[in-house]
């Protein structure tokens, strides 16, 4: 049969489509992930992989798509997350994978965005998460010892690991199945523990690696901070800097699983921040030394909702000074600066994955790292390690200025497109703007517990708190009677006896005959505490009530499962006729939790079971008080935060869901000196909030709110004024740019290939729905200060405002070239100039 040309053309096209489809299907079936000494290899291609940690339970499912999209826009290839065992298996064999714990949904959203996943199964995770991610019931498995060559522990760990791997396989989520998971992790930062416990730790490491590899996921496994990770498991680095890290075998890639973008906040501690310039410097330095995988821990920190924060006095906020803040907004300039860094690294990727660098000296404290491939690709990293002085170096036939503590990237070994110390991305001023929401409060006093209550347990002596509560609540009441004879001398002398209580932590309220006698609490460095006060006692029977308060469970340390919480004694009464009486071994009654918790006062239904007071009868600044109110959701879509600075310590709920623990009464201590990006960073550098509450603002997810009739409940332990509580919107009020002339800049790959690099520009853009309404400041010359605090320097172009007024007012975004002719000429010839600008968004 003869076919005409049109029919033949259709058949050929159909055949080509079939071939294309067949090759696509085959590529999915035959997808591979492996590694060599240079990099992770995905489907036969070496990759420089840029990753960021986003922990799914620390945000809401409604936030996930936008967080993932911002990560992709920021230049990431991979989303990394732990798996949270205690959230998924709250009791043995009973699993939960819903709402914020819907792991499969989270991974599929990452896949839909076109990103990969690094799944850190652990199941020990640390992460400043309650009990390091372990479920509390695990502590009470007979014969168990955590993270060692212990059969009960290994059996439980293997069962959960197999559960997660089986779920991932069933959903076809590993890369070899066409899914996004390219790597998994077993254990977590075990190396230091292994060193302490010796042979049992080494045996456990070997077992864990063999168990994981035996699950046949088809993707590599890693162990972080584990120098002796058995083959084929890859050992990786965690820390602020990892340029000197070397894998334990020459055929393994150099990987950095945690580049700490900031640090966690502790109640009572100052808030750590880490400059964007230093993070970029650390990444560029790692890459120039042969690194091929970098993960930012955290990229979005989020919130420790409920009681999920660990027992080292970790705050509810887990913001971590991450590129995306706890509200889900880009932290500028950090997010944008790292985005620009990622573009420069990706332009250099062909050379980076093809060869080891040649290192040459460029000065006393400067060097160049040059990568050249056989195909002709070339990339250079020019580094200045001096912490004080900028230098000009010669590389090839050109001169390059290197600011202190910085690295300049040349993706073609000629053209500087990025310097780690020069911020091309905009900064912004974000403020909490009060919403038009008025609260009308009602109060209810928590009833004092009694040894006669039905749900009270009586024991001889003092018992450890978590043994009794199983961490179902932060609170445990210890109650006992103290008999005082009428002839006691102190009743006549007025010299009250001294009550001393030793507790393993974390906070303690002491009541004598129903009256608060005092409060003590520990801290991150020492959670243990001692109460020692003279107390008022009367002749006859005196009721002593000790309300012990846990602030989460320990998450790190050798055999931290053995660490205690609560009043363990001794408890003594000194100053009696008999001398000192030891109360520790007498009968004690125990009541788990608060009566308000049992009545579920944090819910609308439960709150109706008691009588509340309001108006002039409202209780203020009294301990152990519940407050409730209702409110309508503020208009708009800005993230919301609750100002709790007028309160002391307790917990907060919105529509029955726990925002977390509040503790603004714990004032931040430490040093908050001026911050300089240059020099080695530590968590004691660049701290803020000294003399203020460690955490004032608490994230209120909009997805938890209804249009009207939202139910807000606060339990206050210390005493506070609820009238000071306020709801506010997280709002961008102004945006800034601070750009040097001649600063390395490059917007598109094509510009580099064509040899066309544009002059630097000051870019400004307001959030969606806002426009630039005013130029608050503009100066071309030698301005000083930072965003929100710019000021003119010794050199200033009089027409600095004109270009921004003309190009930016009334627009959502704009850009202005940094060049003398744009601002009416050079105001100080021969000097290095820049432009600083701040614009209001409205």
Automatic annotation (TrEMBL):
Xref: SUPFAM superfamilies: (Trans)glycosidases (SSF51445), Galactose-binding domain-like (SSF49785)
Cellular compartments annotated: Secreted, Extracellular space, Apoplast
GO molecular function term, any single one: beta-galactosidase activity
EC number: 3.2.1.23
Keyword vocabulary terms for this entry: Apoplast, Glycosidase, Hydrolase, Signal
PROSITE patterns assigned: GLYCOSYL_HYDROL_F35, SUEL_LECTIN
A Pfam family reported for this protein in Swiss-Prot or TrEMBL: Glyco_hydro_35
Keyword Secreted (UniProt): no
Catalytic activity reported: Hydrolysis of terminal non-reducing beta-D-galactose residues in beta-D-galactosides
Secretion signal span: 1-31
GO process annotations (BP): carbohydrate metabolic process
Enzyme class: hydrolase
SUEL-type lectin domain residues: 756-842
Main localization (coarse): secreted
Entry GO terms, CC: apoplast; plant-type cell wall
Record carries keyword Metal-binding: no
Highest taxon, organism lineage: Eukaryota
Entry's family note: Belongs to the glycosyl hydrolase 35 family.
PANTHER family linked: BETA-GALACTOSIDASE RELATED
Protein name as catalogued: Beta-galactosidase
């Amino acid at each position: 049969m003869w076919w005409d040309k049109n029919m033949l053309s259709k058949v050929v096209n159909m055949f080509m489509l079939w071939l294309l489809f067949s090759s696509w299907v085959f590529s999915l079936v035959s997808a591979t992930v492996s590694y060599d000494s240079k990099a992770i290899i995905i489907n036969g291609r070496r990759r420089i992989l840029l990753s960021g940690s986003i922990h799914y339970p620390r945000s809401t499912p409604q936030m996930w798509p936008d967080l993932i999209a911002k990560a992709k826009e920021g230049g990431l290839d991979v989303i990394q997350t732990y798996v949270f065992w205690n959230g998924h298996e709250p009791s043995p064999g009973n699993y939960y994978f819903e709402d914020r714990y819907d792991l499969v949904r989270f991974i599929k959203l990452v896949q839909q965005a076109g990103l990969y996943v690094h799944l850190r199964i652990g199941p020990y995770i640390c992460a400043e998460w309650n009990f390091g991610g372990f479920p509390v019931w695990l502590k009470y498995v007979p014969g168990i010892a955590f993270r060692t060559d212990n059969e009960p522990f290994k059996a439980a760990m293997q069962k959960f690991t197999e559960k997660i791997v089986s779920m991932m396989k069933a959903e076809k989520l590993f890369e070899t199945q066409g899914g996004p998971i390219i790597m998994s992790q077993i254990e977590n930062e075990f190396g230091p523990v292994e060193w302490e416990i010796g042979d049992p730790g080494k045996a456990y490491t070997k077992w864990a690696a063999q168990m994981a590899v035996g699950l046949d996921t088809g993707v590599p496994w890693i162990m972080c901070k584990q120098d002796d990770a058995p083959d084929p498991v890859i050992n990786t680095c965690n820390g602020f800097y990892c340029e000197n890290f070397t894998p334990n075998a020459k055929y393994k890639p150099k990987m950095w699983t945690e580049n700490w973008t900031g640090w966690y906040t502790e109640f009572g501690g100052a808030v750590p921040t880490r400059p964007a310039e230093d993070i970029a410097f650390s990444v560029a330095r790692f890459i120039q030394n042969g690194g091929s995988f970098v993960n930012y821990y955290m990229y979005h920190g989020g919130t420790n909702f409920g009681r999920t924060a660990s027992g080292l006095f970790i705050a509810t906020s887990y913001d971590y000074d991450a590129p995306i803040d706890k509200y889900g907004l880009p932290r500028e300039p950090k997010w944008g600066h790292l985005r620009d860094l990622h573009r420069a690294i990706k332009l250099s990727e062909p050379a980076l994955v093809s060869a080891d660098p040649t290192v040459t000296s460029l000065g006393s404290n400067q060097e160049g790292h040059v990568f050249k491939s056989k195909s002709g690709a070339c990339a250079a990293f020019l580094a200045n390690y001096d912490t004080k002085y900028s230098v000009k170096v010669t590389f090839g036939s050109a001169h390059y200025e290197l600011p202190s503590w910085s690295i300049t990237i040349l993706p073609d070994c000629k053209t500087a497109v990025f310097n780690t110390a020069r911020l091309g991305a905009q900064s912004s001023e974000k403020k909490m703007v009060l919403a038009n929401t008025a609260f009308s409060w009602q109060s209810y006093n928590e009833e004092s517990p009694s040894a006669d209550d039905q749900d009270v347990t009586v024991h001889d002596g003092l018992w450890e708190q978590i043994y009794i509560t199983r961490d179902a609540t932060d609170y445990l009441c210890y109650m006992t009677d103290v008999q005082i004879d009428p002839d006691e001398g102190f009743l006549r002398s007025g010299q009250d006896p001294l009550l001393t209580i030793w507790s393993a932590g974390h906070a303690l309220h002491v009541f004598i005959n129903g009256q608060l006698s005092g409060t003590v609490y520990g801290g991150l460095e020492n959670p243990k505490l001692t109460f020692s006060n003279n107390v008022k006692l009367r002749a006859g029977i005196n009721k002593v009530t000790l309300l012990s308060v846990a602030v989460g469970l320990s998450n790190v340390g050798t055999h931290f499962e053995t660490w205690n919480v609560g009043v363990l004694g001794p408890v003594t009464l000194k100053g009696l006729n008999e001398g000192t009486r030891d109360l520790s071994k007498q009968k004690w009654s125990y009541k788990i939790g608060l009566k308000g918790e049992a009545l579920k006062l944090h819910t609308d239904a439960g709150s109706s079971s008691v009588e509340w007071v309001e108006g002039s009868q409202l209780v203020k600044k009294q301990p152990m008080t519940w407050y409730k109110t209702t409110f309508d959701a503020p208009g708009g879509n800005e993230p919301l935060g609750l100002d709790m600075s007028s309160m002391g310590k307790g917990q907060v709920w919105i529509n029955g869901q726990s925002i977390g623990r509040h503790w603004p009464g714990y004032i931040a201590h430490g040093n908050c000196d001026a911050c300089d990006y240059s020099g080695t960073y530590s968590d004691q550098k660049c701290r803020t909030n000294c003399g203020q509450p460690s955490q004032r603002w608490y994230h209120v997810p909009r997805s938890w709110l209804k249009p009207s009739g939202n139910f807000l409940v606060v339990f206050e332990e210390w005493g506070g004024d609820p009238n000071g509580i306020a709801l506010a919107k997280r709002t961008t009020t102004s945006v800034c740019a601070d750009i040097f002339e001649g600063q390395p800049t490059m917007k598109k790959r094509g510009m580099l290939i064509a040899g066309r690099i544009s002059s630097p520009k000051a870019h400004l853009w307001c959030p969606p729905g806002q426009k630039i309404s005013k130029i608050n400041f503009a100066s071309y010359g030698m301005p000083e200060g930072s965003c929100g605090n710019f000021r003119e320097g010794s050199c200033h172009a009089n027409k600095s405002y004109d270009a921004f007024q003309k190009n930016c007012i009334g627009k959502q975004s704009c850009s202005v070239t940094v060049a003398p002719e744009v601002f009416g000429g050079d105001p100080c010839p021969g000097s290095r100039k820049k432009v600083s600008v701040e614009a209001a968004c409205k």
